[in-house]
Each structure stands twice: as structure tokens, then as C-alpha cells.
Amino acid sequence: MMGLVLGIETSCDETAASVVDEDFHVLSSVIESSIDQHRAFGGVVPELAGRAHVATIGPVVRRALLDAGLDPLNPTILGIAVTSGPGLIGSLLVGLSAAKAYALAWGVPFVGVNHLEGHLFAPLLERSDLEWPLMTLLVSGGHSLIVLQSGPGEHEVLGETIDDAAGEAYDKVARWLGLGYPGGPEIDHLAQSGVAGSLKLPISMTGDDYDLSFSGLKTAVVRATEKQRDLPIADVAASFQAAVTEQLLRKLRGALEHHPVKGLALAGGVAANSALRAGVTDLAKEFGVVAHLPSMAMCTDNAAMIAAAGTYRLRHDGPSSFDLSATPNWQLADVS
Amino acid sequence: MNIVAIETATPACAVGVRTTSGVEVTRVVDDGRRHTEALAGALKTLLDEVELEPRDVNRVVVDRGPGLFTGLRVGIATAIAFSQALGCDLVGVTSLELLAGGAFDSGVRGTLVACVDARRGEIFAQSFLLEDAVKALDSARVSTAREIVTMWPANATPAAFTGDGVERYRNEFAHLALATIVDQVVPSVHAGLSLGTVRSPDEAVSPLYLREADAVANFTTRERPQ
Ligand SMILES: [Zn+2]
């Protein structure tokens, strides 16, 4: 086996490791999440996440190597790709430190990868017939971006959220409604039995550009539910979900009108949302482009996408040096 | 045995190596909390200097704290990954016993209190008796310099105090009559190499935090929102 890359991802609450080959076939993908420790707090507690990563990093990497049929003491890999930002600093440091140590021990190169660029490589792991350019909506608990990709590793950020991320808005509204964390799946589930539009919500449009905004929507939900106290919670969920989806789709439509592409891709945790998947499918049909909806496994943070992006970065930029720092606020626009 | 030591419990990052043939090199490579940036490169340089390949390393010893949480995680994640990748032994030691060992090596005898700066006005402390060897008198705890000074028995025998926790609160410790301050801010890597050589290896090594995560501490003392 040639050209294998070991990916390591610890930017938030998932400790993940994966082995991917040069054609982006996933040989193994192991994910340990500390989410159960965070639920009571309604969000990821950085210190708890950092502690969990130290406990799981070794076993997770070992499992990923074994699952890929590699000798954990002498894996025949080309290199190691590790998320070095953006993310929680205390979490990033665990993966980055471990990656450097594995690289030193095995005498292989390593490269620091931008987590968001990792998400952009996810579609490549699921289909080999991808045609460029691609319009990608990357939405998660920490990020919301519209990205024009002209090829692997070549991307232009057209717009991003000016305040909260889409997933963050879901979490905040879920908390307000007394639902569990994370809020996305809870609201999505409730929305199925609710009537969208029951709650009058503004669609916040930030202007002619492709930027997004969700903090006003959360405030609007709070205000509107205080006025309409008897409204079933399912109707609130459905109305909120429809408003989020509407904003995302309007911005995407604008981007598609100005930038002809071959495909429309969804990425990030919110890509699991049923309303968004349906909306993106319709939008792709309308523009006559291919819709790339990630599998559920590829929506969540994983290390296969980091290995894929790392394969590209190793080839194009070469390895990182041992003094590489973690960059908690690393913007996708600054990756080149 | 070829043994490598990793020390990241304080703002400093220190490494050491001792070879089967008895060559030893120890070094503080950074003192500005840049553990992540400094550690792996320093290990490589050190191994190159003593002409060892990573594969020649038989054992890794790491300071598991108490100390700076992020520093500990960098050091321990490095130690776990390095030892696992090589299939070699891993040994965890504490920052307080390394301070005691360092004081012992510099000739200090009698009662010694090792203190690591715990930030937020607190220190991690442990008492030792240094005679033929280093013996712990109690277990590591979170305290304050003032608490240690005021609780110190008036008729106590002379004692020595060491660590960056003492350095930080030197004025408080100066109130103690018959106290000597042993200047030492970085837990001793040399002591780490010695302890790491004689201890039996650990199944797994985890940080010794001695403190809950803030959110957990706040959460349990606060009423849950409705
Ligand atoms: Zn992500």
C-alpha cells in the first residue's frame, strides 16, 4: 500500500484518527466523542474536552492503524495530517503534540491542516467523479460559510456569518425551548410535526453580499414566543428551522446566480439537517447541478477529511516543522 | 536503558536523555509557555546529540503534574504518542517529587515542602523528608502560601521550601523563621531520569490536575437553571 496518510483531529469534542489512501479511500475512521460530558452545560466545555482528548488520543490512533491493517509500531504511511486550527486551543494542542511525537518516532513528515479545509475535502471521500467548480455551504456549530471551490485546495470564501454560526443558533434556541444539547437534531425532530410559519420570524438578510447572520433570529424567536405563549413547541421549532433554511438557501441562490458551478455541496454538522438537505437538493435541481449531500458520518467532525486535506497539503506545500503552533482562529480565507 | 524525560508542568519546557552508556543531557528549552512549539524539536535535537535514533529509546518518563493544565497535556500527549509509536515503556512522575528530587540532588536534607504555582493565588504543595532518600510525608494538595505559612508549627524543625510556587510568593515564605528557600523553578529533569529508570512502567499516564474544570466546579455549586 502506497501513499497512506494518518489523519488526527481534536479541534473540539471529538478525538478522531483515520487512515486514507492517495485516492481518498478511507481505510479506517475512528471517532471518540466527549459530548456526553458536555450535555449538562448546554455546550462544549473546553477544559473537559481537553481532558478527554488526552485520555483517548493514544487508543484512538492505535485503533485507526489496526483497522487499516497497519502495524501500529511501524505503519507504512507517507505522513501525518493534524488539525492545527481553528478550534479550542486546549483541544488542538493535544492532537498537534501527539502528531509531532508520532512523526518524530516513525520518522515521517507531518502537516498542520485547517479544519474547515478538511470539511471541504469531505465530498472527495464519498465520490471520485466530482466535477469542479463546486459551491459549498459549510455549516456547523462553529462556522457558517459559503465557499466557491475551483478544485481541491482551491477555494474562495464568498460569505460567512457575521455573528453566530448556524449550529450555534440551533443550540441557543434549543436551550431557550428547554430542549437538550446539541440543539440541531432536537429541533429538526420536533419540526417534523410542527407548522412552519406559525411564528412570524424575520429572514435576516445582511445585504447583497453572501454574508450570513443568525443572532437576530434567536432574539426574534425569544420575543415572538413570549407574545405567542400558547404556540406548540413543534410549531416554534418548525418556524425557526424554516427561517434558518430560508436564509441559507437565499444566499446560496445568490451565489449560484453569479458563479456558475458544476455541483452544490453541503458540509459540516448542520449538513445533517433534513430541511437543509431537502432545500439544497431542490436548489441543485433548479440550477441543473449535482447535489453533494454528505453521509451522516461525514457531517460530523472526523479525521478522514483531515487526512484527505493533509494529503493535498503535503503534496503541494510540503510538511510543517516541529515548531508549528496551534491557531485557534485560523480563517479559511487565510489558507493558501 | 536509553531513557527520555519530558517536563512541561510549569511555564518552562525541559527535556532530558540518559543513555545505556551513562551519557546524560538535560536542558530547559523554553520558559515562556511555548511547550507545543518547543517540545518535539527539542527531543529530536537531544537524541541527535547523543546519537540515538527514536527507535533506540527504551523508556519515556513524563511529569504528570500538578501544574499548568495545557502544559501537562502537551507533555503527556507527546509522551503517550512517542512511547506508543515506539512500543516502549512509559512512566509518570509528579512535578512535586521532581522538585524534591532536585533539592535532594543539590544537597538539601531534612523537611522540604515542594510548591508549584497553581495560579489564582493558589499553589500545589507536598511535604517530603529528605534523608538517605526522598520520602513523601503527605499527598499533593491545593493550598495557598499564606495557609502553609500560618499553619506551620511554631516549634517546627528548620525546613526548606522550593518550586515556582515559593518563588511566586517569596514574601509570604519569608515570614517563616528557620525556613530556607531552595531556588528551583523547573522540576528537575535529572531527577525525572533517575526516578523513571527505577520505577516500574505505567499502563497509562494521565495528568494530575488536583482541580476540577471550572465549569464543573461552578455547576455543582450553583443551582441548575429551571
Ligand atoms: Zn467541523
Give an overview in words.
The complex is a heterodimer of chains A (336) and B (226). Chain A has 336 residues and is an alpha/beta fold. Chain A folds into 2 domains: 4-119 and 300-334, ATPase, nucleotide binding domain (Nucleotidyltransferase, domain 5, 2-Layer Sandwich); 130-297, ATPase, nucleotide binding domain (Nucleotidyltransferase, domain 5). Helices cover 44% and strands 18% of the residues of chain A. In chain A, helix 2 (46-67) packs parallel to helix 3 (89-106) and helix 7 packs antiparallel against helix 8. The model of chain A has no long low-confidence stretch (mean pLDDT 94). Chain B has 2 domains: 3-95 and 187-215, Nucleotidyltransferase, domain 5, CATH 3.30.420; 96-182, ATPase, nucleotide binding domain (Nucleotidyltransferase, domain 5, 2-Layer Sandwich). In chain B, strands 6, 7, 8, 9, 10 and 11 form a 6-stranded mixed beta sheet that branches. Chain B has a 5-stranded mixed beta sheet with strand order 3-2-1-4-5, with helices on both faces. Mean pLDDT of chain B is 94; it is low at 222-226. Classes of the chains: A alpha/beta (336), B alpha/beta (226). Chain A binds chain B through residues 40-41, 45, 47-48, 50-51, 53-55, 57-58, 61-62, 72-73, 89-90, 93-107, 321-326, and chain B through 34-41, 43-44, 54-55, 69-70, 73-82, 84-87, 204, 206-207, 209, 213-216, 219. The structure holds zinc ion. The site of zinc ion (ZN) has 5 residues of chain A, from helix 4.
